[in-house]
UniProtKB/TrEMBL annotation:
Location, primary (coarse class): membrane
Record has Kinase as a keyword: no
Name recorded for this polypeptide: ABC transporter substrate-binding protein
Protein origin, superkingdom: Bacteria
Listed InterPro entries: NrtA/CpmA_ABC-bd_dom
Organism of derivation: Ensifer canadensis
Stretch list, region Disordered: 1-24
Subcellular compartments: Endomembrane system
Keywords on record: Cell inner membrane, Cell membrane, Membrane, Transport
Recorded GO CC terms: endomembrane system
Alphabetized Gene3D superfamilies for the sequence: Periplasmic binding protein-like II (3.40.190.10)
Length: 431
């Protein structure tokens, strides 16, 4: 396994407090072109641009809204972007050489935790109520089991399997949807059809009947429920609260050639993440995100999403999820290699990657806590080891009770009763 020990405390350019909005660095400004997808989990990157945190570190962020994760991946690889808002598994997949255009990618900074949910069509949920005896207030596992009961009846009737949307084959959404399905006894590769749908298109696709459900980031689940076309049946926190979500991706050779810029960027993002975590700033953040240049969703929906207040169905039933978004607290920005290794375990579980020592080292190398510590100092990092057992505590458990030990990945994968047999393929085309 890669040696990812502390390389030193490093120096911060402006400490850990919020930077003064008008402060400029003596080195002069540098423009970084950054790709992003219109999602609330891009908040830290957008806030760094809109509220002066990047400028305080002598940086200008040129944010470019894109339409798909494959575009973001390719434009970073082809040097149209310097950095990018990326799915947490994308750097891992890149370092493993997976996908149609695997260009080495690392992340020194996580953009926070939370934000995903699973939404099913009203028709499917009505059948879950009928077949599974749901009363509307069940937890994620009960919902998954009820979904399995519906699939059993559909198979008996000779019906076509439901079509479910994820945003990208190497995505937290794909692995979380699969985890939820499998926990209920559903085989994602045999019992349903998984397809790739760009996040902003998911609600329209559900309403049109092109898909029967999806797992995507905020605000698109709430947009679907507010429009009365879907029911939210599970959130990211239900599946695994600490699951990494989005990260800042960059090419390793670019990071090596621009070490000061990387450190200044991390300092700016750290300050922006602290600002985003403060409830007093939610109104300002919501207004910024609602702009058509960024997320372009109704400001009231964004405000409620940031507060974890959900309308889960067309009847107006609500759910409040504490810490639905965590942008900074509890080391949410720390790029922990054991998180990268859990992602790798899911790639292996579903037949996307082979297990082995070299692949394990490559997967862990995608997450770079050394660059985080170099920019912010050793005191900004958690005291515990970078590679730790995940899901062992009551407040951080997986929905099915499994515990992930990075030292025993093969045993972990083999312990799941539902997993790929003989090499399943990634859901949807890698495009």
């Amino acid at each position: 396994m890669a040696n990812l020990g502390d390389i030193g405390s490093g120096l911060t350019s402006s400490g850990h407090g919020l930077p003064a909005p008008q402060k400029m660095r003596s080195e002069g400004a540098r423009t970084l072109r950054a790709g992003f997808i219109p999602l609330v989990d891009a908040s830290v990157l957008i806030a760094a641009c809109e509220f002066g945190f990047a400028r305080s570190e002598g940086l200008t962020l040129d944010l470019v809204k894109d339409v798909s994760w494959a575009n973001v991946r390719d434009r970073l690889a082809f040097r149209q972007f310097d950095i990018a808002h990326m799915l947490s598994p994308m750097p891992v997949a890149a370092m493993l050489g997976l996908g149609s255009n695997p260009s080495p990618t690392i992340t020194p900074f996580s953009l926070g935790r939370g934000g995903n949910a699973i939404t099913l069509s009203n028709r499917l949920f009505a059948r879950m109520v009928e077949e599974g005896g749901l009363e509307g207030a069940e937890n994620a596992l009960a919902n998954a089991q009820a979904f399995a009961a519906v699939l059993g009846r559909m198979k008996a009737n000779g019906d076509a399997p439901p079509t479910l949307g994820v945003t990208y084959p190497f995505s937290s959404h794909n692995y979380e949807f699969r985890y939820w399905l499998a926990a209920g006894g559903v085989d994602p590769d045999r019992d349903v059809k998984l397809v790739v749908v760009p996040p902003p298109m998911t609600t329209d696709a559900l309403e049109a009947g092109a898909i029967d459900g999806f797992c995507v980031g905020a605000p698109w689940n709430m947009v679907a429920s507010e429009r009365g076309v879907g029911r939210i049946v599970a959130a990211k926190q239900d599946i695994w609260p600490s699951a990494p979500e989005k990260v800042i991706g960059m090419r390793p050779e670019w990071a090596e050639a621009n070490p000061e810029t990387v450190s200044r960027l991390i300092v700016a993002l750290d300050a922006a993440a602290r600002w985003c975590d403060d409830p007093q700033n939610r109104d300002a953040l919501s207004e910024a995100l609602a702009d058509q240049r960024y997320v372009g969703a109704p400001v009231e929906i964004i405000r409620r999403v940031l507060s974890g207040e959900f309308t889960i169905d067309a009847q107006g039933q609500r759910r409040v999820i504490d810490d639905y978004f965590v942008f900074h607290r509890n080391f949410a920005n720390y790029p922990r290699p054991s998180h990268a290794l859990w992602i790798y375990s899911q790639m292996a579980r579903w037949g996307q990657a082979d297990l082995g020592p070299e692949a394990t080292t490559a997967a862990a190398s995608a997450y770079r806590p050394d660059l985080y510590r170099l920019a912010l100092g050793a005191d900004a990092a958690p005291a515990e080891a970078d590679i730790r057992i995940e899901g062992a505590s009551a407040e951080d458990r997986f929905m099915d009770g499994h515990v992930f030990d990075p030292a025993a990945i093969e045993a972990y994968v083999e312990a799941f009763p539902v997993r790929a047999e003989g090499g399943a393929t990634a859901s949807g085309a890698d495009n």
